[in-house]
Amino acid sequence: MLGESDLIEFCDLRKRSYLVSQPRRCITPPPSPVRVPSNSSNPISAALTPPSDWAVWNLSQNIEGANDPSPVVNLSSSTPDPWTVDAQDIQDSIDARAEKLADSGPLPWFMSKEFSTLFLTYHAMFTVSLSFNHAKLHKRFVSTACPDPFCGANGPAPEGCVAVFCTSSRAGAALEHYHIPAKDLSPAPPRKKNQECLILDGSYRGQILTISQCSVGKKTAQFTIKGIAITLRFDQICLVQRAQNTM
């Protein structure tokens, strides 16, 4: 049996042989805000003062926020929808297609940007050459699609072509849609007064005017502008028709 002094030494040695558990560490909350008097002359201290809402600290919210990798999305953003097609998109498409066709020669006035805005609200009317579709449309007028003369009900026209339509000659008078090469189209002449024409040449180039007199035999049309009558040849004008449904 151990003596009294040996027993005390043994007990002390046993206590020192065990590891002492460390206190559990917790996330340290943000420090309390440092209040700086409003009349403080130290701008640096004022700038470093944390906002007053730091005094209220929620541990669970902070932890959840730190573990959430989702980005913040502003659903009320005013950025335009890239899938929405507006009038400017159509105009840009018309201009781009027109530039490609302008160098090929046929219908230079139709392919230029000068008149492109008119075809957002008007159909240009054309005659079709004998070489297209076995002369099926030779004696008929066709109208360009609107608001985009290069994209009709049957889809975008192939390069070098124009999207047009006409009334079927069969029973029912349904509309027929075609993609016709520009080289097979010519401006349609007017047939009677009160029809509208796009002026292609002269002082009134680019304007749409109403015919006051029409001579099919002479192939001329007369227009009255501010009391002044002007006469133009059929090759200086193109028959147009206002679109019923426009953007």
Class derived from helix and strand content: alpha+beta
* Run of helices and strands: HHHHHHEEEEEEEEEEEE
Fraction of residues in β-strands? 25-35%
CA distance, first residue to last residue: 110 Å
- Net shape: rod-shaped
Helix content: 10-25%
Please summarize the sheet with the most strands.
10 strands, antiparallel
Question: Can you count the helices?
Answer: 6
Total number of β-strand segments?
A: 12
Radius of gyration: 41 Å
| Low-pLDDT windows of residues | 43-47, 52-78
Which whole number gives the mean pLDDT?
A: 76
Brief rundown of the structure:
The protein is of the alpha+beta class and 247 residues long. The protein has helices at residues 4-17, 43-47, 59-67, 87-102, 108-111, 113-116, and strands spanning 122-128, 141-144, 151-152, 155-156, 161-167, 175-181, 185-187, 196-199, 208-215, 220-225, 228-233, 237-242. The longest helix is centred in the middle third of the chain and has 16 residues, at 87-102.
Layout of helices and strands:
Blueprint (H helix, E strand, L loop, with lengths): L3 H14 L25 H5 L11 H9 L19 H16 L5 H4 L1 H4 L5 E7 L12 E4 L6 E2 L2 E2 L4 E7 L7 E7 L3 E3 L8 E4 L8 E8 L4 E6 L2 E6 L3 E6 L5
Antiparallel strand pairs: 1-2, 1-7, 1-12, 2-5, 3-4, 5-6, 8-9, 8-12, 9-10, 10-11
Descriptive report:
By secondary structure, the chain is α+β, with helices and mostly antiparallel strands. The chain contains six helices and twelve strands. It starts with a helix and ends in a 5-residue tail after the last strand.
